[in-house]
């Protein structure tokens, strides 16, 4: 199925068994690397450098933003639920004008960084992740949360701002990965 916003050949790289919805918009496809067995559902918008490792799922309506100088990376078995916003670039909301076309001319204080989502991480529906955040392996955040600090491994977070509420079952998660690899 052909995408209506970009050509797959414009991507920096794209592995096998990749499904990209025809309404996914990628503003800078030359900055996007996609591994194998990846799904990016319709109505997703990507406007930053992005590296997706194997077995990643991005649900419908997600926004991965930050501009050309920001970076987002998602490792194996990580997932974004519907309508997540990963904002690897932002404005400080204190000075300047936030409109991208004039921000530099009016000296807005942009925050440009990266978001790293390691293996076995989940970002719940409607959550927002701010720049310079690391989801350490196995961390997860519940729906409608705001992530403004990096998350510890194999913990579940929720809230505004997100706070740890439970431990995740590391041995069960790793056992499931092992089963998947043996299929």
Low-confidence region ranges: none
CATH topology: UDP N-Acetylglucosamine Acyltransferase, domain 1
What is the 3D form? globular
Q: How much of the polypeptide forms β-strand, as a percent range?
A: 35-45%
Radius of gyration: 17 Å
Total domain units: 1
CATH class: Mainly Beta
CATH superfamily: Hexapeptide repeat proteins
Largest sheet report: 10 strands, parallel
Main structural class? mainly beta
Q: Treating each run of at least 4 consecutive H or I residues as one helix, how many helices?
A: 1
H and E order? EEEEEEEEEEEEEEEEEEEEH
N-to-C CA distance: 28 Å
Q: In CATH terms, what is the architecture? A: 3 Solenoid
Helix content: under 10%
Mean pLDDT across every amino acid position: 92
User: Using DSSP, what is the number of strands?
Assistant: 20
Helices and strands in order:
Layout: E1 13-14, E2 19-20, E3 25-26, E4 32-34, E5 39-40, E6 45-52, E7 57-58, E8 63-74, E9 79-80, E10 85-87, E11 89-91, E12 110-112, E13 114-117, E14 122-123, E15 128-129, E16 133-135, E17 140-141, E18 146-147, E19 155-158, E20 163-167, H1 170-182
Parallel strand pairs: 1-4, 2-5, 3-6, 4-6, 5-7, 6-8, 7-9, 8-10, 8-13, 9-14, 10-15, 13-16, 14-17, 15-18, 17-19
Antiparallel strand pairs: 11-12, 19-20
